[in-house]
From TrEMBL:
Residues 15-71 form the XdhC- CoxI domain. Residues 177-319 form the XdhC Rossmann domain. This is XdhC family protein. It comes from Curvibacter cyanobacteriorum. Coiled coil: none annotated. Pfam families: XdhC_C (PF13478), XdhC_CoxI (PF02625).
């Protein structure tokens, strides 16, 4: 599945290029709890078709009713183009009162404000889509007085901004995932990444693994992993995950990824295997603890997973948390959770050489 913003923009361009009247809706402010974050977009056309989302569904239904009159009129005739608004962008709020919040299914106390852009120009939409397809990070600036749009390259992702004259929203290219290894775990992880909006590339020089690959939508390559990482050119919207358990394949790929801006770099393996990997990299590849600080492992969050699908859920959850800037509690880390779980079993039966056993509560403090 593609990046949702790109899906919305492509469909909106398709409608406008076909001559349909349509509207782009952007969440510009929220107060309290809200179902979708600031910057979320959706589009609807004069026939009542919708792509994207700004809420759980109730607000979308109200927008259709208010701005397309998609339901039959008194004479049994459908009302379409004549009832769709036009003109400069306008702002609308939902959930100001408790009754409205309840009516539109907003969380308790939730309010959101939307900017409605009527009949966006097809050529400006196509220019934005082309830049995103080329991998650019783009700032889209809308002049509120008349809806005029300008595009510029953004150096870094920025939060949406709105003042009395302009709306500025940053659109990025797809998030990308590079998986080293085409085994069963990679199939589950690739599937989850695809429906989470990532473009997925799978690298495995081993023909027996590539031949069994069964996930449609993922690109499969056969070159050596370190060469693939260099060609992949990971950026701040990329993650690299090594899954083969083979140091000849995983280690060099991870070292290349650590030289990039990838937001997540990690390798599968037990606590012991990950410690061995770090020791190899320090001994043979002139790495240091500081240079390996970004290397994650064991990867995933601790959910007691044992099977490949459960491990994939664990890993995908951690990747999404890092992508979304969420700091996970320390006790959710796999190594930390397992160390605490194993402590009573690993501890000696009594004091060693007259030294009392450590207090487990103090150790967790």
């Amino acid at each position: 599945m593609e990046n949702l913003d790109v899906v919305v923009l492509r469909k909106l361009h398709e409608w406008r290029a076909a001559g349909l009247r349509a509207m782009l809706v952007t969440v510009v402010r929220t107060w309290g709890s809200s179902p979708r974050p600031v910057g979320s977009i959706m589009a609807l056309n004069e026939q009542g078709s919708v792509v994207g989302s700004v809420s759980g569904g109730c607000i979308e239904d109200d927008l259709i009713d208010r701005h397309t009159r998609a339901y039959a009129g008194p004479a049994g005739e459908a009302r379409h183009a004549h009832s769709l608004p036009s003109g400069p962008p306008s702002l609308v709020k939902y959930g100001i009162s408790a009754d409205e919040a309840h009516r539109f299914g907003l969380p308790c106390g939730g309010t959101l404000e939307l900017l409605l852009e009527f009949d966006p120009a097809p050529d400006a939409l196509q220019a934005l889509i082309a830049r995103l397809e080329a991998g650019q990070l783009v700032q889209r600036r809308v002049r509120l007085a008349d809806g005029q749009v300008s595009l510029s390259v953004a150096e870094a992702p920025t939060e949406l901004s709105l003042d009395t004259e302009h709306l500025c929203n940053t659109f990025g290219p797809e998030y990308r995932m590079l998986l080293i290894g085409a085994g069963q775990l990679a199939e589950y992880l690739a599937t989850m990444a695809l429906f989470s909006g990532f473009a997925v590339t799978v690298c495995d020089p081993r023909e027996e693994y590539r031949g069994a690959w069964s996930v449609a939508g993922a690109r499969v390559v056969s070159d050596m992993p370190d060469d693939v990482v260099r060609a992949f050119k990971p950026d701040r919207r990329s993650c690299v995950v090594a899954l083969t358990h083979d140091p000849k394949l995983d280690d060099l790929a991870l070292l290349e990824a650590l030289e990039s801006e990838a937001f997540y770099v990690g390798g599968i393996g037990s606590r012991r295997n990950n410690e061995a990997r770090r020791a190899r990299m320090i001994e043979h590849f002139d790495q240091t603890e500081a240079s390996l600080a970004r290397l994650r492992g064991p990867i995933g969050i601790y959910i007691g997973s044992k099977t490949p699908p459960e491990i994939a859920v664990s890993v995908m959850a951690e990747i999404l948390a890092v992508k979304n800037g969420v700091t996970l509690p320390r006790d959710m880390a796999v190594a930390q959770a397992k160390n605490e779980r194993d402590w009573p079993h690993n501890a000696p039966a009594g004091p060693v050489c007259g030294v009392p056993l450590p207090d487990p509560l103090a150790a967790q403090a």
